Amino acid sequence: MLAGFKTFILRGNVVDLAVGLAIGAAFAGVVTGLMDGLLNPLIAAVFGQPDISGVWSFEVNGAMFSIGIVLQAVLNFLLVAVALYFLVVMPMNKLAERRRRVEDEVAEEPEADLALLTEIRDLLAVQARRP
């Protein structure tokens, strides 16, 4: 039972998930700072509201609806996704592509060596047949 748990925890994708969650939480803080420091004041200047959550709010039979809250959640999500993509995913994909290219080059070298050795063998065989 504990061995299975240890295997689960030490599996690469669990560690990747933990790192992703930590980085996502850190970026969420950055996005919150970006929203509070830059975007919300810009929205306040344009719409006359203190932040985007107050935009397009209305009340029906005592129930308050706010499209702005949904827009703010979507904007926060998109900012976190963009930051994660350009700062984590894209560099990791480039690194994996570079690693794959090096592995392919290394895998091709034995074939080139084999071709060269075959040519040398054939030349030596021709020389050995000559008197």
Question: Could you describe the 3D structure shown?
Answer:
- With about 130 residues, the protein is mainly α.
- The protein has 3 helices and 2 strands.
- It has helices at about 1-10, 10-45, 65-130, and strands spanning about 55-60, 65.
- It has a two-stranded antiparallel ribbon with strand order 1-2.
- Helix 2 packs across helix 3 (about 65-130).
- The mean pLDDT is about 80.
Round the mean pLDDT to the nearest integer and report it: 80
* Share of helical residues: over 70%
- Tell me the strand percentage band: 5-15%
The secondary structure category is mainly alpha
What is the CA-CA span between the terminal residues?
A: 74 Å
Which H/E pattern describes the elements? HHEEH
Number of helices: 3
Task: Tell me the Rg in angstroms.
Answer: 30 Å
- Coarse morphology: elongated
Largest sheet: 2 strands, antiparallel
Work out the number of β strands.
Answer: 2
Largest sheet: spatial strand order: 1-2
Poorly predicted ranges (pLDDT <50, ≥5 residues)? none
Which key phrases capture this entry?
131 residues, mainly alpha, 3 helices, 6% strand, elongated
